[in-house]
Amino acid sequence: MSKRQLVSLIVVTDLIVLALIGVGFWGALQSAPPLLAQAPQPGDGDPDHDPHPGFYVVPDVPSSTYLSLAGYTFTARPPIPPASPTQLAFYPGGGVYISNPPNNDPLVANLNLPNGAILTEFRFYYYDASDGRDATAELRRTDFMGNIDSLASVSSSGTPGFSSVATTNIQPNTINNASYAYAVHVYLNPGSNPDRLRLYGIRIGYTFANANYLPMIKK
User: Fold this and answer.
1) Mind listing the pLDDT tens digit for each residue in 71-85?
2) 94: number of CA atoms within 13 Å, CB side?
3) For the segment 130-164, what is each residue's pLDDT rounded down to a tens digit?
């Protein structure tokens, strides 16, 4: 065998070996599961209606977060005439109370929650040193046509001082900004010593069943 034939044989052999290695590597890649397997789900971001389905990525772990409102961010709802307006007084540490009892118009804060969010917790932070009166916080929605739904309600009890009370019983619990506006109403029920019942804050927990608010880009 000549030197040229020997070199040609070696080159051909190397090419065959490289081809076999490439085929084996490609087959392994095709059979291996994807690193980030996520199931596509239909939806257009509206929890109640889905006229134009699309594909959206579902996270492996649903995201969750909180919306927190300090007491001093609440405002008094305008009174129904001829009642006089409710007057608020601030307390150190972010608290607020009604300073002109017996007015008990609710203190109101509008909610800005993402469409499709699923509400998981409604918590009321308060100060209660009143023997015979309790404060109540209510989560509401309105449909812009005069109809109001109460989604959740909690109240203080006894005289625990600084405390909080929460519920996970929120129905319906899915935010639909296309059809409703959401707000929190707090009734402090002031007596002769109104500063014994004070609002310090509201915390609302929410999560998502899937990430249908994040569209997956398709070519």
Assistant:
1) 999 999 887 777 788
2) 11
3) 988 999 999 999 999 999 999 999 999 888 889 99
Nearest-CA neighbor of 63 among 181, 211, 184?
211
Residue 69 has pLDDT above 50, yes or no: yes
DSSP secondary structure, the chain, as one string: --HHHHHHHHHHHHHHHHHHHHHHHHHHHHHSPPTT---EEE--S-SS--SS--EEEPPSS--EEEEEEEGGG-EEPPPPTTSPPP-EEEETTTEEEESSTT--PPEEEE----TT-EEEEEEEEEEE--SS---EEEEEEE-SSS-EEEEEEEE--SS-EEEEEEE---SS-B--TTT-EEEEEEE----SSGGGEEEEEEEEEEE-SS-TTSBPP--
- Interatomic CA distance for residues 62 and 206, integer angstroms: 10
The better pLDDT of the pair 82, 208 is held by 208
The amino acid that residue 24 corresponds to is G
User: Across residues 14-33, what is the average pLDDT?
Assistant: 54
pTM value is 0.66
